Amino acid sequence: MKTRLFIASIIAIALAACNSKTVQTEATTEAEPAAEETLALDGTWRLLDFAHDTEICVIDEDSDYYLQFNSEDNSFGMSTDCNSLSGNYVATADSLRFNITAATLMLCDDTKVEDAFKSILPTIDTYSIGPDSTLQLRVDARRYATFKFVPAE
Domains, the chain, ranges and CATH? Predict the structure, then answer.
């Protein structure tokens, strides 16, 4: 019973995080990234949107949701407006896996997106980098999140 309540809570949180545009999505199959693209993950990526079922939750431009990759030690960090997640990742030409090893737990007004990413990041299995400098993370071939590369200043 507690498990069902926990799963229902996670779904409710993810749905509540959808506070902007809603559009239909569909599963896409794109060419897998080349091996050299795993190094292209390095740097900072700003979250644009993430999917829940058939909806895309668009993130406000003034929000601070960033994903950072460092291929030197295969570490990642994610800032989520208030808290942060960090850990390590393994990327190959056709897969991407995250392992969250730490998370801050500050009291925040809104942790809906943060909570959704804590549960979904470990299930990400593939990615692609588009010619428009967007990174798409996928679960079972379905797009879960889109990030835009942020050039270093």
Answer: 2-150 (2.40.128.270)
* Cα gap 138→121, rounded to integer Å: 10
125-134 contacts at long range (C-beta below 8 A, 24 or more positions apart): 125/95, 125/96, 125/97, 126/32, 126/94, 126/95, 126/96, 127/33, 127/41, 127/91, 127/96, 128/30, 128/31, 128/32, 128/33, 129/33, 129/37, 129/40, 129/41, 134/48
Q: What is the pLDDT of residue 39?
A: 60
Structure token digits, residue 122: 């470990």
CA–CA distance, 85 with 25 (Å, rounded to integer): 27
Give the single-character DSSP code of 31. P
Maximal CA-CA distance, the chain: 50
- Give the per-residue pLDDT at 101: 93
Amino acid making up residue 64: D
Asked if the model's pLDDT at residue 29 lies above 80, the reply is no
C-alpha span between 105 and 127 (Å, rounded): 28
